């Protein structure tokens, strides 16, 4: 990609992610035609989403980097990790999230708001990390393994460097940085989809009491799903839906950029 | 011998053992986290055994739940929806990738760039649809059709919204375009065979490229089965179909461990059945590729 296009590309991604940043503006800055309590819910939902995305990104990327590195360092451990992650990947993500969340729902409802919010975030990050790990670890371990078996790695080995040292050098190459960027976009997209689908399903099944501390945009859309019926205000349904779509497009663009470059 | 190895690995280990161990692990996690007393573990285990034997009343705590009825809800709704989604996903990827690859071939070799624009527009459209949250698409459909929405339409929404179609098309297109640059594909293109613009039929250029990409594409499809099952579960909840998704949510809502166990087990079985079908195709068509893939 040429430099002006690259700048334009990242500018477009930043614009598409703008609503997530705008969610942190004061409540009064939204258009006045929206009900006040809805405005507050909308901002809370997207603030929570940005916190969830950032926290999951940090935790999952860190774990993926460690597991990807360890998988290549020790082939036996790598094979074992691969089998475990493949088994986790065979279970639908929404099932994992429901199973992680459901048992603690009662505990969350009984706790004070702040404690409950933190616990809910921790549970969701755990579930999301479980579901994104297989793909992100694979996305890092495969290119790292490829780099290690290339000719210049062989010459590194002939100088007597340890495998751990060579791998830590290879982790800083452009190829690995691109792989990390791609894995990060994948983690963000998967977390976004899981967070919102999960919020929607919980809200649909359990009603407003089902998500005592998980203010996901998905839950907000589900809470306003009747706005599409006659007499409702469809904007209440479409505004969060469109913001979610633009956010997804930003992550898809980053993911697609790598694919196009590879092809 | 090879067939026996395939059956042991895919049917027994990845099918039966995966479904049983997966259900036991998830049920244990659930019982542990709700702090269930030891007798509940025993009861759940007994119900699970009764479910696997197909008993009429498998739940001692909640009589009236027939194992057959729960299995039927999976067989009547979840499985057909998952299979229809898989079929549509394959069609979108195969037709889209054939069109994109032949368009690129025409643009590079014959300077005919008309198809390239259409192919890019198709990719962009699928990308835009992929960005639409799946449940939003389902709810809009449910708003128009209610619970009478036709299965093929739900399967189509499952594939195009949420990114499955876009991802499969990108995967296959990249692989077929990579094949296009190889020497054997160049030799084949000089034989004057038809292009196979939309369908990669045998004897066409796209068919030739597709046959080389197929061994990689089938395992990719097998890997997408859990995502399809997850999407189908959401569809069942949104459209209020009496399938496994709704049963699972009801079970969570009422803290009914037996029903939860049953719906998770059948859901994992459906998952394993669909994955087994896909892997059987790979084994039957490309036995050596299957061996290489495992």
Describe this structure in words.
The complex is a heterodimer of chains A (263) and B (294). Chain A is an all-alpha fold and 263 residues long. Chain A has one domain: MetI-like fold. Chain A is built from eleven helices and no strands. Chain A has helices at residues 3-16, 18-22, 36-73, 75-89, 93-110, 113-148, 151-158, 163-170, 174-206, 217-223, 235-262. The longest helix of chain A is centred in the first third of the chain and has 38 residues, at 36-73. Residues 259-263 of chain A have low confidence and may be disordered. By secondary structure, chain B is mostly helical. Chain B has a single domain (70-293), classed as Orthogonal Bundle (MetI-like fold). Chain B has helices at residues 2-33, 38-52, 67-110, 114-130, 134-145, 151-160, 164-180, 183-189, 205-238, 244-253, 257-285, 287-293. In chain B, helix 1 (2-33) packs antiparallel against helix 11, helix 3 packs antiparallel against helix 9 and helix 10 (244-253) packs antiparallel against helix 11 (257-285). The model of chain B has no long low-confidence stretch (mean pLDDT 83). The interface between A and B is large, with 41 and 47 residues.
Summarize the structure.
Chain A has helices spanning 3-16, 18-22, 36-73, 75-89, 93-110, 113-148, 151-158, 163-170, 174-206, 217-223, 235-262. Chain A is mostly helical and 263 residues long.
**How many distinct beta strands of chain B?**
0
- Mean pLDDT of chain A comes to 83
CATH class of chain B: Mainly Alpha
CATH architecture label name of chain A: Orthogonal Bundle
- Give the structural class of chain B: mainly alpha
Query: How many helices of chain B does DSSP assign?
Result: 12
Low-pLDDT ranges of chain A? 259-263
